[in-house]
Amino acid sequence: MASDLDTLLDMGFEKVRAELAIKKTGGLQGALEWLEANQDKSYEDIIATTVTPSHADDDPDAEPLPLQPGEIAQSLLCNDCGKKFRSQAQAEFHASKTQHVDFAESTEEVAPLTEEEKKAKLEDLRWKLAEKRTGMSEQDQVDKKRNEAREIRRKSTKQSQDIKEELKKKEQLKEAAAKRKDKQDELEAKARIKAKIAADKEERRLRAEKDRAEREGRAAASQASAAPTTSGPVESKPASAYSDSRLRLQTSAGNLQKTFPVTVTLFEVAAAIMQDTGIEVQSFTQNFPKKVFDAVDFGASLKELGLVPSASLIVK
User: Fold this and answer.
1) To bridge 26 with a disulfide, which of 66, 150, 164, 167 should be the other Cys (CB 3.0-4.6 Å)?
2) Which is nearest to 206 in space by CA: 183, 187, 191, 227?
3) How confident is the model at residue 65, as a pLDDT?
4) Vertex 276, ends 275 and 282: CA angle to 5°?
């Protein structure tokens, strides 16, 4: 026949709780009542509040003691709920848990639980244990879903931030390209104005020379004679006529002479320097005219930056 401890273990109670319940109550019936009353307490809390028998009267949470050998069987009746108790200690324990205070002596002896009552009590405790575990499982599912929802929101926020950062970078590159184009257009406009001024100045000079010659009664020098001869210096080609650019690059590892197509960007020039010398280029400096080309200008071509047909750059 299985012992009271084995019966409690088969029901699913922890061994330490079952042993403590039997030790405190002395039997299966009292152990069941004790376990039911303390099911919401942790084992550590129960141990912390346990007191010695000599102080049981001073502690409202003290556990009821079993009937001692030779004690006369009698019962106490709780007039508040009608429940009967075999000993004074059990009645005091009931009062400490329920706050019931109206007790009276009864001549009826509390009969022990029958086998059917024990089975019913066990079944009721099993059901309560299963219900408690189900509630804990449901709470775990709720917590899991809440954590998953929080993680989804976190990832969504990060993706939104990444998209915003990417759009911001693209907008910055677009603005930098627009600024380079505006600057190039301004340079070309200034060059056209200078050329127009020079042409007007030359035209006024020739007209003044012709008027002076007519007043002095001599023939004005023909424009052909003013034109450069084939043996004289040849007018240089415009920058737009060149397809290559010769660059003299001053690096910490020495000077480099390289020729690139005018459509090559400064980024590609920096990559070529990196491949040849291992130097990571941060900027290029041109002494005359004084100008610094940094990362913002790396996307522009040599032609757009006016580094045609040749240029001397300091690599930093």
Assistant:
1) 66
2) 227
3) 47
4) 65
